[in-house]
Amino acid sequence: MKCLIVLMNSGIPDIVFMSADAEFIRHVNKVAVDKGLVQKNEVSWEKLDLNIATQFFSPIVASHGLLSCELDNGYSSITCENGSIFVFREFCDHLYIAFNGDGKESEDFLSRKLLIFNKIVSLHFGPVIEELRPDNIAERTEKWKNLGSVLNTWLQLYDQEQCFLFEAIERLQVNQGVNEMCINLLETTLKKMHSMGDKYALHTMLLVNAKLLALFSSRNANELQPSDILLLTVLACDIYPSMETLDDMLSRPYKAPEDHPPELLSSESLMKSRGQRVGDEYPSKSCDGEDSNSVSSSSYHSPKSTPERCTTPVEHMATPGNKSHTNKSPARRSFNKHAPHSSNKGVDEVETDSRECVRDGTPNSLDIPVQKSGELESSECFHTPHADVERSHIQGMFEEQNRISESSSDEETIPEEPQPRVYEDVPFSFANLEPTKPRQLPRQEKLRIPVFLRGHTCQYTPHIAQFIPILQGITLIILSELKSSLASLLCRALKALESLDPGKVTRRTRVTLKQAVEELETCVKKIRETLQKSKGVLHRQFVSLSECWDNCRKFGLLEYANSGISEPMTPRLESAVSELKKILKAVFRVRYLTQRKLSGPAYDKHEEALDIIQKNIAESLNLYKQYFTVKAQRNITMTTYLERFPGLVHFIYIDRSADLITAPAVNVTKSEGSDGRDASLLIHDKVWSMTDKLHKFIKDGYISVAYREGDFFYSYFLWFEDTLGSSLECREPPSVNTNNLPPGIIATDFYKNLVQTCFPNLQPGLVQCYELICIHLGVVPIQYVLAQSQKLALWLWETGDIQKPIPLL
User: Fold this and answer.
1) 214, β-bridge pairs
2) Which residues does residue 769 pair with via DSSP β-bridges, in sequence order?
């Protein structure tokens, strides 16, 4: 029995979003019938009237609001006598509540669930949480259904994938030839998008289920944050769920791949039905006429930024007494956004036999010579093809998405938009909530949606994300960044307004108030200058913004900033500040969230180009489809560590500087007749149960943990190094648990805050953070556990450098 609800944080609860399972809906309907709120014959047991839900949550919301406003000490959680748990979180004047009544979700997990959902909302709508509840009931129902489906997908990935359990990126460990081929395909895709007029396309990535196969970014692009990559992975898995398992693939007889995979027939037939020729924009033949799927060192080359040798990002360490030396290539530690790290045969010795999955001609060694920085552009094997479309029309279509309100001609195309909505005027008694179900999209349907990613200058940098299905379980994502100067100003102004919230009066100081008002005044001035020449809806918002800002100054905003923290805000000033916040969000909504229906010849040709990209990448990867299916579920099988390290059952290594995880696979396919004695299932359960305890230790400031439980011995080590590989010791025990935030990177910057807390005098980029988790048999003595942990990291890193041992205990 589960539920997640978002309400306006006010005296009268106003439901903005709600997602619940069928059991919770039946329970609330039963309570409503028992209390006489509704007649039994009027209840639809599979749907929930939001009026009933409002009355159900009203008492607890009112109590929380009173404690929060009067005592600044609202509820964090409530545990009932029957074991039901309510967890509360506040974000931007909205109250998030997570409920669990079956005992399957703990308080810490519910808190993480709320934080993750808030990030999902921010990914879709930026700072405008009000977009969760549109005026139109049908649109609201569809939006709630999609967001609930994304949340359920994250829950599924959290329960199945180690990368989401520890919130770190898991790279698909493939051989060097396949790695170079994927990088070249992504680079060619970006060049193709640029040639079609989308000059703002900056990032492309290939996902295989929940794992990252390849990532390529333009040189002028900002670094894509690992947390955003994980969120985009959740979206891709939700849009194109892959139901194929390893057992399903092995149960089918082998069939040689065809030249034209069946998945692409609908795309090709669609193009032919439009009366247009299916062009071969990407060369399917190599320079000498051979099939381009033949992976060889002469046919596939990495981009300029690909290092000459990439290894798994595990730090080398040795036994005590050895001197520390610098790394041969310190750049190997960092997350290279232009090219993924290739697999290391020391990490996965199974890769030495992966040449059978590649056609003849692929070198067996992973130390393949990489093309020099100037050779790629002269290569004829992967080049940007000549576009057959009219670039001027395509250029105009993409520039329409990036127009800033600077000239009147730019804003004439913006459609009319109603004034900022007021919740009290929107009835919701006609809308019924149904249990959340996964969304269903045709396999070949491409999806183009706005997303807001974390940038260096803007917390919600606007992007256009294009999700393109390639093969079963393989998805291509193309990210185009929009101009973000106005978005940055709006986000800064809204953040300054949060500091003026009357409900946070006890948390402020006079200096904070003054700085917030000065920041707000600067941002509003620049926003008005940006919108001054606009027309249409944005011009009306410019007029409203100017009048509202004048009222704020007139009603004593500057005097309030210079007053003491105990001085309350006058009702007129409070109303003007609230109206200013609505106008700023309305500007953000019109500029970045207004859906523009794309049509016409330019759009059709752009879709044709995407179809060609889809077709050619699928043809290149079709040979390795089954190989990717196996690797997605058994990424690192690493059976040799059982011989090298007797007693070691499982390990997890995480490079927190780049948020990359290395761990043997523990994917489990639960059959109906399973008796629960499967070894993989046992390890899976031990890892997931261990994680809850480790997170508690980490939040309490422990960096080394070792304990024996049952038949297993668990150990956890967290250490820091500089860029040269020398160990750094924190003199004071770390403590970053001021807000009870769970360890992770999606919802919080836990590890960045940890580094800043432990080393306040060093720049964050100069300190590397690593984690190592090991599970041994319980009979292994502690001294052997410590020795094997050091040797394990040395074996994983596999370099000839000798360094100081990590401070395990």
Assistant:
1) 206
2) 720
Chain centroid, CA 120 distance in Å:
8
19: part of which helix (H) or strand (E)? strand 15-20
The secondary structure of 526-594 as a DSSP string is HHHHHHTT--THHHHHHHHHHHHHHHHHHTTHHHHHHS-TTSPPPHHHHHHHHHHHHHHHHHHIIIII-
Check residue 351 and report its DSSP letter.
Answer: G
- Other CB atoms within 10 A of residue 71 CB: 9
Which residues, 6 or more positions from 671, have their beta carbon under 8 angstroms from its beta carbon?
A: none
In single-letter form, the type of residue at position 622 comes to: N
Cα–Cα distance list, 30 to 27, 298, 518, 796 (Å):
5, 70, 53, 57
Per-residue pLDDT tens digits for 305-344: 333 333 333 333 333 333 333 333 333 333 333 333 333 3
Q: Are 5 and 57 in contact (CB under 8 A)?
A: yes
Nearest to 757 by CA among 728, 726, 735: 735
Of 148-157, 431-440, 756-765, the poorest mean pLDDT is in 431-440
Q: What is the tens place of the pLDDT at every residue in 69-112?
A: 777 788 899 999 988 999 999 988 899 999 999 888 999 999 99
Which tokens go with 228?
């955003």
For residue 276 the two structure tokens come to 């247009």
Q: Which amino acid is at 700?
A: D
Query: From the DSSP assignment, how many helices (H) and strands (E) are in the chain?
Result: 22, 18
* 654 beta partners: 661, 771
Q: Residue 292 contacts by C-beta under 8 Å, 6 or more apart in sequence?
A: 283, 284, 285, 286, 299, 381, 620
DSSP string, 262-312: GGGHHHHHHHHHTT------S--B-TTSSBTTS--TTT----TT--SS---
End-to-end, the C-alpha distance of the chain in Å comes to 42
| Residue keyed to tokens 């974390």 | 454
Residue 435 structure tokens: 């249990």
Query: Residue 673, Cβ neighbours under 10 Å: how many?
Result: 4
- The residue type found at 744 is G
CB under 8 Å, gap of 24 or more: what pairs does 701-706 form? 701/733, 701/734, 701/735, 701/736, 701/737, 702/733, 703/730, 703/733, 703/734, 704/807, 704/808, 704/809, 706/782, 706/785, 706/809
Beta bridge mates, 211: 208
Using CA atoms, how far apart are residues 602 and 396, in angstroms rounded to an integer? 8
| Torsion-angle region of 103 (φ positive above 0: left; ψ -120 to 50: alpha; else: beta) | left
Report DSSP state, residue 199. Answer: T
| Residue 743 main-chain phi, psi, to 5 deg | -60, 135
Backbone angles phi, psi at 486, to 5 degrees: -70, -40
Q: What is the pTM of this model?
A: 0.77
Residues 690-745: tens digit of each pLDDT:
998 999 888 888 889 999 998 999 999 998 988 887 888 887 767 655 567 889 99
Q: What residues have CB less than 8 Å from 620, skipping those under 6 apart?
A: 181, 185, 282, 284, 292, 293
Q: What tokens appear for 146 in the block? A: 């999609």
Which residues make Cβ contacts (< 8 Å) with residue 151, sequence separation at least 6?
4, 19, 113, 116, 117, 120, 436
CA distance 142 to 431: 12
Q: What is 585-628 written as a DSSP string?
A: HHHHIIIII------SHHHHHHHHHHHHHHHHHHHHHGGGHHHH
